[in-house]
Design brief:
- This protein is α+β, with helices and mostly antiparallel strands.
- The protein is 18% helix and 23% strand.
- The chain is globular, with a radius of gyration of 17 Å.
Length: 155
């Protein structure tokens, strides 16, 4: 997927304060393109169909249940990356549970999530990143994902 100049960092990182309770229902949410994004830089649900990848949230739906609009916002495809199914339901989910537990011990917990395209090939002295793209819009499948969790005692 191509990103407009200066937009990559805005869409690759999620920094949020979350609420795991509220008046919202995931059954009323659906994955959709972000209406604020130029369609030439946007993915579509068809990109994920039969791709072998889950639509993985960077900012989890389960942490944004304040109201239906807040929950729905997490389903914009600008918050979604192709993710291995097992990683999405296992390790990534355990990380989410871990930082939710941290909120019981720290007054402020911030989480930054995003994709990485790590060099995985060498030609002589140069390193290159080779990665898969999926779907008609050529959505980039990251070679790695990251979460940075900052737990702060001071406010």
């Amino acid at each position: 997927m191509l990103y407009p100049p200066g937009a990559f960092s805005d869409f690759s990182c999620s920094n949020f304060f979350f609420t795991t309770s509220g008046v919202s229902d995931r059954e009323n949410s659906y994955f959709r393109p972000d209406p604020t994004m130029d369609r030439s830089f946007s993915s579509d649900n068809s990109d994920y169909k039969y791709s072998g990848y889950a639509r993985g949230h960077m900012a989890p739906a389960g942490d944004n249940k304040l109201n239906q609009d807040t929950l729905n916002d997490t389903f914009y495809l600008t918050n979604i990356l192709p993710q291995d199914f097992d990683n999405n339901k296992d390790f990534w989910n355990r990380m989410e549970i871990y930082w939710r537990d941290l909120t019981e011990r720290f007054p402020e917990v911030r989480v930054f999530s995003g994709p990485l395209m790590m060099a995985n090939m060498e030609e002589g002295t140069k390193k290159f990143a080779k990665y898969e793209v999926i779907g008609p819009n050529g959505v980039t499948v990251p070679t790695h994902l990251f979460k940075l969790i900052v737990a702060d005692h001071s406010q």
